[in-house]
Specification:
226 residues; alpha/beta; Rossmann fold; 4-stranded antiparallel β-sheet; elongated
Length: 226
């Protein structure tokens, strides 16, 4: 599950963004203050920051610049009531990945969030080999072993494990599995994901009834703990 920081001082806007993003399955954290937003962004891990330009404490442009100066690679969408071209250019030059002028439609916002998160995922270094416990996964060769003995994982199970590994310690919801493992051309039910998780646990867990690696997060999805 992608984690999004919303830094917005207008209560209705902040609440609307939070409610709609969480309805789409994202985890959100909010603040109304630029200084506090910068502190949170530096201290915690986020997959995306939605940042208003005009903020108390520190404006969005300064927050953006300071994050980039710190070496942060977290993508940012900047929000502003200004529509002048020079303001958009300034925001992008400060390090924002996208720029949306208020008022905007929530449908447009959600579409841009999805595009930026997908791009960020694609930009991550690809994982070739991964080891946890007695299991070794070779994603390039689609081969797996446990204690040196072959472990029979299907290509789809490898892709499920790849998604888990890329999001180690984070909740992955069922919709993410359907989108990134099954793809857009097929739309199985979320129950299909649960059935595949059950089979995957049978193969990688010492005790599938008491899993130590693939943990169910009630009403949210699953979390991988190596």
């Amino acid at each position: 599950m992608s984690r999004i920081l919303i830094v917005e001082d207008e209560p209705d806007m902040r609440r609307g963004l939070k409610d709609n993003l969480e309805f789409e399955g994202y985890e959100t954290v909010t603040t109304a203050n630029g200084t506090e937003g910068l502190r949170m962004a530096l201290k915690e891990d986020f997959d995306l920051i939605i940042l208003d330009l005009m903020l108390p404490g520190m404006d969005g442009m300064d927050v953006c610049r300071k994050l980039k100066e710190s070496g942060s690679t977290t993508p940012m969408i900047m929000l502003t009531a200004r529509g002048a071209e020079e303001d958009k250019i300034s925001g992008l030059e400060a390090g924002a990945d996208d720029y949306i002028t208020k008022p905007f439609s929530l449908k447009e916002m959600l579409a841009r969030v999805k595009v930026i998160l997908r791009r960020a995922t694609q930009d991550r270094p690809s994982i070739h080999d991964y080891t946890f416990g007695s299991i070794v996964l070779s994603f390039d060769k689609y081969k797996a072993t446990r204690n040196g003995q072959p472990l029979d994982l299907s290509p789809r199970e490898f892709e499920m494990m790849r998604l888990f590994v890329e999001n180690e310690g984070k909740v992955v919801n069922r919709e993410q599995f359907l989108e990134q493992v099954w793809g857009y051309t097929t739309v199985p039910s979320t129950r299909t994901v649960d059935n595949h998780i059950a089979k995957l646990r049978q193969k990688i867990e010492r005790d599938a009834e008491n899993p130590q690696h693939i943990i169910t997060v009630h009403r949210m999805g699953y979390k991988f703990i190596p």
